[in-house]
Amino acid sequence: MRAMSLETSTQILDAVEHLPSGATLVIHEFSWDDYERLLNDLGDRPGLRISYDSGRLEVMSPTSRHEKCEVLIGDLVLIFCEVFHLTLEKAGGTTWRRRSLAKGAEADGSFYIRNAKHTIGKEDIDLEQDPPPDIAVEVDVTRNSAGKFRIYAGLGIPEVWRYHRKVCKLYALTNGKYKEIAVSGFLPRLTGEMISDAIEMGRSKGQDEARRAFRRRIKGLKKKQ
To answer: pTM (2 decimals)?
Structure first.
């Protein structure tokens, strides 16, 4: 593999460190070793989303609006699982990657539900031997995450949620491609519309009210079982 010079490494790291909110940096012909080195250099710096697909590196710096949506969606999943007594392991913006596939990505949110028991107690999850998260979430405010679907498909993530232009759509992996579905395969009876409604309420009335309203709605679903 091509070795990245110290000068180039420093320039890229500097560009990433000064990436404006909402901006995206794309670099082509980037080696896997360089990708892993960049992840290591950046450490646990919050707020960046880095993806890698066969030599193409993309670094995105989210906006505050993006982060609010991401946090609220995580709360909604937690509420749903509490009401329906489902085991949940939240993996947040973990970097999911497989060197053997030359693919890696950080989702805006990721959750283990059906496979939660396989991750409990594990310090590090290795997709070369461990199952991928059941659900990955993408929030599109200033960029289009559709290109990351190819990465998620390669990693074998069975369900992806995409919130874009005030609409949340759910997709299931079928024969290597994502197809839109009406209801989540992991959270029974949960629809994208329910998530969209909660996010809009959070925007207009605040996240506390959105969470309370969502909990009432989910409890209503459970009573109808």
So the answer is: 0.89
